[in-house]
Design brief:
5-stranded antiparallel sheet; 2 domains; 17 strands; Elongation Factor Tu (Ef-tu), domain 3; 7-stranded mixed sheet; Rossmann fold
Length: 276
């Protein structure tokens, strides 16, 4: 059992949880993830590690309430315990070979680039950051990004903060304005990462994406997280979760992510007492 030490609400459906998990924190690194079960009857769900403290033995995750299990997690309070919290899983990020880096976060994906910017800063590298969301209330870790980034550019669909538009608009403006990056690291909804990869392909810039596929066991045995990358089958949990964005078959990944939409709706209805 892993205790919830703190819970912070970012918006109506987004919460940050700081979990007591000394064994995970001891080995965690940027880019890795955990798989948790809310209770003994719960399903296994993956979450990227967005922060960790080795000395305190804590791991931080950011959770958007969108389905049955995340709704159950949202009912827990500080001091409550999570049944299982396994990790760290996946391969840690390695950006050492790059000097001029742009980190791009869409929506809750900004939680994934947060440990990246901290790690780069600790190594003496200051990267630029572009974050995007539907509106100002959904922009996260704003002060933290300002602390660690060389430049922070915020984009909102409605123009309520930063500039109005999408993250791809800002990327294009930066590149056309003379900025030179040898790596762009993008995390967010699959359509957003697809759009970023399509854009950067024309500029010939290495683009890395973190794939938020369906996962069950996190060991590569179940095969539910499989992807096509460069016309070869890969598994996000053991081969990733990060891949060359120019090689990922995003259309297949988007289709696979929708396979269980009806089942998820059914579970939510049972939890909330709704009627299908």
């Amino acid at each position: 059992m892993n205790k919830i030490l703190s819970r912070k609400k970012f918006s109506e459906n987004v919460n940050e949880y700081v979990i007591s998990a000394p064994d995970v924190a001891r080995r965690a690194d940027a880019g890795q993830f955990v798989i948790l079960r809310v209770d003994e009857e719960g399903e296994r769900i993956p979450f990227t590690i967005c922060d960790f403290d080795r000395e305190a033995g804590t791991v931080t995750i950011l959770v958007q309430t969108v389905g049955y299990s995340t709704m159950k997690l949202a009912t827990l309070k500080e001091g409550d315990c999570i049944a299982d919290f396994a990790g760290p899983l996946g391969k840690a990020t390695d950006l050492d070979e790059y000097e001029n880096i742009l980190l791009v976060g869409g929506g809750i994906g900004s939680a994934v680039i947060y440990p990246q910017i901290k790690k780069l800063f600790s190594k003496g590298k200051k990267a630029d950051v572009v974050t995007g969301a539907r509106n100002e209330s959904l922009l996260i870790y704003r002060n933290e990004f300002k602390t660690y980034a060389r430049n922070l550019y915020e984009m909102t669909d409605d123009g309520s903060a930063g500039e109005k538009g999408f993250v791809t608009d800002k990327i294009r403006n930066l590149l056309d304005g003379g900025e030179r990056y040898d790596c762009i690291f993008a995390v967010g909804p699959l359509p957003m990462m697809k759009a970023v990869a399509n854009l950067t392909r024309g500029y010939g810039i290495k683009t890395i994406v973190s794939m938020n596929t369906v996962m069950v066991d996190g060991t590569g045995m179940c095969g539910s997280c499989r992807l096509t990358v460069g016309n070869e089958i890969r598994y996000a949990c053991v081969d990733g979760p990060e891949f060359d964005g120019h090689l990922v078959d995003f259309d297949e990944a988007i289709a696979r992510n929708g396979f269980y939409r009806d089942e998820e709706r059914s579970h939510v209805c049972r939890l909330t007492g709704g009627v299908r």
